[in-house]
Amino acid sequence: MNVSAIHAELEQHFASDLEDIRAFLRLKSISYTGEGIRETADAVAGLIASLGGEAEVVATPGHPIVYGELWQDAPKTLLIYGMYDVMPTDEDGWMAEPFGAEIHDLPNLGPSLICRGAVNTKGPLAAFFAAMRGVQRVEGILPVNLLFAIEGEEEMGSRSFPAFAGQYAGQLKRADVVLFPFFEQDEAGMPSLVLGTKGLLYVELICNGGEWGGPTERGIHGSYNAWVKNPAWRLTQALASFVDKEEQIVVDGFFDRVRPLPQRQADLLSEQIGSGLMDAQVFRDAYAVRRLKDEDDRAAWQRLFSQPQLNIDGLFAGYIGPETKTVLPHRATAKVDVRMVPDMEPDEVLATLRAHLDRGGFEDIEIKVYNSYPWSKLSLDEPAVQAMIRTYRKLHGEVQVWPINPGSAPYYVFERLLGLPYVTGGLGHGSRQHSSNEYCTVAGILDFEKSMVTFLDEFTRGPRAPQGET
Amino acid sequence: MNVSAIHAELEQHFASDLEDIRAFLRLKSISYTGEGIRETADAVAGLIASLGGEAEVVATPGHPIVYGELWQDAPKTLLIYGMYDVMPTDEDGWMAEPFGAEIHDLPNLGPSLICRGAVNTKGPLAAFFAAMRGVQRVEGILPVNLLFAIEGEEEMGSRSFPAFAGQYAGQLKRADVVLFPFFEQDEAGMPSLVLGTKGLLYVELICNGGEWGGPTERGIHGSYNAWVKNPAWRLTQALASFVDKEEQIVVDGFFDRVRPLPQRQADLLSEQIGSGLMDAQVFRDAYAVRRLKDEDDRAAWQRLFSQPQLNIDGLFAGYIGPETKTVLPHRATAKVDVRMVPDMEPDEVLATLRAHLDRGGFEDIEIKVYNSYPWSKLSLDEPAVQAMIRTYRKLHGEVQVWPINPGSAPYYVFERLLGLPYVTGGLGHGSRQHSSNEYCTVAGILDFEKSMVTFLDEFTRGPRAPQGET
Lengths: 470, 470
Fold this sequence. Notes:
Distance between the termini of chain A: 24 Å
Oligomer: homodimer
Strand content of chain A: 15-25%
Number of strands of chain A: 20
Largest sheet of chain A: 6 strands, mixed
């Protein structure tokens, strides 16, 4: 591949590619409401067709999954995994229309696209196609075969994806590796590469009035709490028992399967921290967090990459509007997510939560499971991982290697069900996913496109040892 | 007064009075949004004018208060206290348009008006005027002078009422007693009379991310809880420390000023419970509560009338919509109301809550005060109270005498600021105030009108001892 020629072509063509990407971002595709889902799935099929590939919008019990093939009779095959669904935009404080894909000049970042999905992950997905079209314009043909599995339920826990993977296992297993295109540079420009992803268990704890007390059918006048118990007090008591005042999880058995980082990854992590390659202050500044659970940055990174979490995503009971209303609610709920590290398994973790509630006398509190899938890991020696590391080194000079992604994605489907390794990556920067003013920088989109080209080159040609190895 | 002639007149005229009452109920007058407040205040002034009285819509820093006079040079003067504001209607499960005042046939209750404010308290207010117009049609003139103080902020803690009472003290003090017209019959038809009302302290506990941890500006991706603390966990810990698992309040000093019921009221309560006059099962059935805090009904009634409460009215943090969203919120809040019994004082109680948080290491959690006013009590010997008791005995045969109203109203303004006794009453039944499908029975409205006439007669003529005394 004539990488430099393709990079030059992408620069030439960027203004037009940018408009294509913005048009794709403007398509609403809100996971849990289903708004715009079908149209966006069709648009993804159109992107595959724009490369000359064949696409199929596969119906599922939930949102459709777009399967596609661009077969070039090349020696190597990449399975492109991605998602076209996004989170809702109910947060306060949006500075622009959440699906407007407007370009605003952000402090320290420069011109940036403000849009739900800009970084997570319709932005990188659309930019990947732009990059591949650039390769085709210069080279005529791609150096790899591409398969596509682009789902529409990632933000709801990829519920239909495992069944799809089973159904299409024959096609998918033709891939050598799975690539998830993403903008991996942080606010300071540092790219990172993850060697796995945490598992996700997302539940709702529901406390209804019943035999233990509380109103059973509707909220009643608040003044009756003098003689009627309150589900909000009961749920509060139950929740408070899961952690101590320092927010340490105190659930029996919760940590039984947690194992320390593999030695090689632990060494690599401390080497990166020691050399100043990884700086937690960048995170504190970017996320407006004044204090981490650990004062010491080394301990903080260790915790992030080696520890599970039990997070309250949402709390609700009674009246939450302006001013005052006195009511004794008949129901109180909490949305909670667990992020699991090796070797925790979702069903076992769920059982520890249930047992904890029961031990505390909260047998009546229901645990409703929304999402549940395990962690996955991959090897630093995986050729695609090494190719991505070389890509970062070539184009940016340095890269952080993260033992695991603190977030979650259903990569276990590839690793466990299909036996496929995977790599996440790309240059480019965006942030505020799941929050207001989600953005990606405009310059980062072009860097991302170039990095995808360089990755293809590195992946197809393989390493020129010894330089470039980690 | 020719009571029976007036009762007959009210029956004759009821169909037309009912339509007037429904029209008044259809006026929205939502306290905290201000929707329809001004129009409803003007309508109240119109009701006073319909008796030939003079009304003034008095501006306040909040919603206007309607002051009125109907001076008949009578020996006795009643100050009619009431409210024209209502709670919002955000609850699920309304079977009819919340301000439609539709008539539906309710099980065991018969034809009933479904409307926000039907019982709390625009229904009784409008019906009182209908009753007085009936007296005028038969007698030409009322046997008492009437003063009116009808506020529009009762559901927000009557914030402007004390200042108004001070400003109009000269006029208001001409009253012998304050009357609050209300439908006092329960689901089983039993009327009750209250000898006071609990005080109210309504606060919001607010936990924001800050120096202790947590995101400070916005919610961030839920996966970062692995190294960032969560305000929802912190608020949960703080709340859980206020009560034990049996929902007993465990705040130092909270109960210091709580004193037992006066002996005479305790004896009267015991007697009513012993005779089966007061039956907690009626409450359990009506409010769909399977178990009270006390298994024993006697203990339950004692608690209701002699103990304060600390109730969670609302809990909120993060994402509470359908399905899932993983977020680490930057803020968590709880709306809490305290109902105070003699001799608790709001400022002292607030100080115990603040001290409790501080002792627990929650100095950062803010307590925002929305409403704060003290309890009030009145004597069983008060002539107006005795007149109301005689009214119930005459028209219904029996009455429950409650040592205190578990709910709250700013009667301290009358008792403490103006030195005026007060009485709440009337036959009629309604329920589900502050909840969906608030209602009052149609038949009860007529009973209420008649009871207001009988009360006027009993109050102006005085007791014919010994019968009728309690």
